[in-house]
Amino acid sequence: MPNTERLEGLERAERLDRVERGPMMTGGTPLRSLDEDELLARILPGFPVSDDLVVAPGDDAAVLRTTGRVIATTDTVVLGRDWLDAWSSGADIGHKVVAQNLADVAAMGGRPTGVLVTLVADPELSLEWVLDHVRGLSEACLEAGVAVLGGDLSSAPAGVVMVSVTALGRLDGEPVLRSGARPGDVLAVHGTLGLADAGLRLLRADAVERLPVAVERQRRPQPPLAAGPEAAAAGATAMLDLSDGLLRDGGRLAHASHVVVDLDPGALAGDVDALTGALGAEVALDCVLAGGEEHSLLATFPAGSVTDGWRVIGSVRAPAEGEADGIVVAGRAVAHTGWDHFRNG
Amino acid sequence: MPNTERLEGLERAERLDRVERGPMMTGGTPLRSLDEDELLARILPGFPVSDDLVVAPGDDAAVLRTTGRVIATTDTVVLGRDWLDAWSSGADIGHKVVAQNLADVAAMGGRPTGVLVTLVADPELSLEWVLDHVRGLSEACLEAGVAVLGGDLSSAPAGVVMVSVTALGRLDGEPVLRSGARPGDVLAVHGTLGLADAGLRLLRADAVERLPVAVERQRRPQPPLAAGPEAAAAGATAMLDLSDGLLRDGGRLAHASHVVVDLDPGALAGDVDALTGALGAEVALDCVLAGGEEHSLLATFPAGSVTDGWRVIGSVRAPAEGEADGIVVAGRAVAHTGWDHFRNG
User: Fold this and answer.
1) Dihedrals phi, psi of A241, to nearest 5 degrees
2) Do A76 and B104 touch (CB under 8 A)?
3) Cross-chain CB nearest to A116 (options B151, B166, B240)
4) Which of A123, A179, A340 sits opposite B35 (nearest CB)?
5) Rounded-to-integer distance, Cα B48 and Cα B57, Å
6) B171 and B267 in contact (C-beta within 8 Å)?
7) Is A106 helix (H, G, I), strand (E, B) or coil?
8) A8 has which bridge partners?
9) Where do the DSSP E strands lie in A225-310?
10) Mean pLDDT, to the nearest integer, of A247-264?
11) How far A58 CA lies from chain B's nearest CA (Å)?
12) A-chain residues within 8 Å CB-CB of B59?
């Protein structure tokens, strides 16, 4: 199972990181050599603002102009659990934690507007890592037209670095839930499948040259943010972002909607082929079906309503008598698993 | 300096906690024995909802009905840095992290509407602690009419427990900034002064019986949430919540507004007297002037506009020729300091 392998790789390296305090904690200027005001003075000017930001960071709270409904979501990454110093730069992590939060806003049919960012770190963490991180985070926000609304800084025990982001968004129409898929709908995806997991496997195998684009996607996911509101406007009945793999997330959509989602393997052949040269056919299929952190969008549409940029990869039907809701591949049940923080971690 | 003493007490115990994994990590059911879905099934039903919650936790993101401007703020607490297992229960910490976030919303003149909560924890942390924490957190939200909009769970290295909260609020009028105080205004406070710091000192001295109300305030701050919008409606010119002490926070308000804030020691005599029996006059004065974590509200009003529940404790004037902006006591400059995460931590 890919997620178990991932875990083992991370767990092993995480222990090393904790004991050895990798390059992000040994080179450059440690955070403890600055006071909080000095640190903020280095960080805050890099944060993007927006026209909707009525009160920018620096007061008790920020104030953001918005429409009548606000979308809110939060996602956290932890050194050694979600990334390794050796594999991702500070900028990569900034980009990634923003992207995965914004993907959740898009998956409701919304447009992201702002983020709040919290860094909890070993005071030995280098200022250079933090500034690089802020750069990546700000770039990802700028690309999406998102402002940084605020944040918090706190120190943590030796070896701990954690970044928590909360994203806000605006919703102009109705939210697209996971639970709205109906029998007769088609299942469609916007974006790649399996690339980020393939990149993780290549990093583990020290073979990044076999498919650099996959490694880049693992480091910097590219959620198709505009596709979320476009799908909502086109009448998507259910939607989510692929964070834990097609089988697991598709299963969640099926379960929430009380339907059976049937994946068409033929429609996934191109995704598998794209990874086969680097990883072999079996692993490539695993990546496409179960690979996490892709952050493409998965949605169901009434047949005939699928809009530009989405490709149909399956169908939706009612469960047969006695059949459970869930995901199947070409009509056949599959085992699926995924990342679980406390049990695996 | 109170904050240095606080730090030393916490640092010492924090090291013990990390090595020994206190009761929150040794008794009961460890989190690692549940999978994430089982854990969420135990947590989510306890979270309060509200009529404005259009999409509750469980989808990619929550959706909250709001007015045209949303207030957002975030604040994080870390075991060993911000609390000790021996001194605060899970429920206390839940209450406290919510209260300190909601205080920031109130300090803008807003009404809190929702929070997002992230728990990053050692998988040895006990489920019982987490459920107690959720109880305290939910009670604090319910009292304030606030919904839990969502959250995240992640595992962390041994001994680490961290809770990060983002609070949202609605703003019906104009935000009250730190920077609006004008010469001729009066300075007023709503709520107690020094009680939370007194409680911390009594916990450190193992003398909680000397003033239980102070210890209770340290464990569970009581920000006067309604007073924020009331002050805004009454014409408050500047406002913030007292998280780092009267001198430091009052100094911030003065600096942001380019004014001199002059505290009237006579107006603080009652606050000092209330703590003198338990701590002696000198320490009591220290608590009142520099004690953190009180989360009372500090504001400036045009003379004659001070509204119910606020008491005047000083005045605002323009800096004299060559004088810096800042805070003074009875016209005389004072040294002030406070908590600094990376340098002290």
Assistant:
1) -100, 145
2) no
3) B166
4) A340
5) 11
6) no
7) helix
8) none
9) 238-241, 260-263, 297-301
10) 97
11) 9
12) 108, 175, 177-179, 240
pLDDT of A4 reads 31
Cα-trace Rg, chain A: 21
Residue in A60, A70, A76 closest to B73 by CB: A60
Instruction: Out of B34, B67, B120, name the one closest to residue A76 (CB).
Output: B120
Count of residues making up chain B: 345
Q: How far apart are CA A135 and CA A131, in angstroms?
A: 6
**CB–CB of B108 and A157 under 8 A?**
no
Q: Which of B76, B242, B239, B106 is nearest to B169 (CA)?
A: B106
Q: Lowest-confidence range among A312-316, B52-56, B196-200, B277-281?
A: B52-56
Chain A positions touching B65 (Cβ under 8 A) are 68-69
Q: Which two tokens stand for residue A193?
A: 């499948």
Three-state SS at B59: strand
Cβ contact, residue pair B63, A70, below 8 Å: yes
Residues of chain A with Cβ-Cβ distance to B107 below 8 Å are: 60-61
Q: What is the pLDDT of residue A337?
A: 47
Contact residues for A141 (Cβ-Cβ < 8 A; gap 6+): A47, A48, A98, A115, A147, A148
- Do A164 and B164 make contact, defined as CB atoms within 8 angstroms? yes
The tokens for B124 are: 């040895």
Structure tokens at A311: 């490709």
CB contact under 8 A, A35 and B342: yes
Per the CB < 8 A criterion, the answer to whether A84 and A142 are in contact is: no
Cα A76 from Cα A166, distance rounded (Å): 9
The tokens for A248 are: 């697991």
Q: Would the annotation count A243 as a binding residue? A: yes
How close is the nearest chain B Cα to the Cα of A121, in Å?
Answer: 9
- Express each pLDDT in A279-312 by its tens digit: 999 999 999 999 999 999 999 999 999 999 999 9
List the single best residue of A166, A248, A255 to mutate versus B (max B Cβ within 10 A).
A166
Q: Which domains does chain A have, with CATH numbers?
A: 2-170 (3.30.1330.10), 178-344 (3.90.650.10)
State pLDDT tens for residues B268-291: 999 999 999 999 999 999 999 999
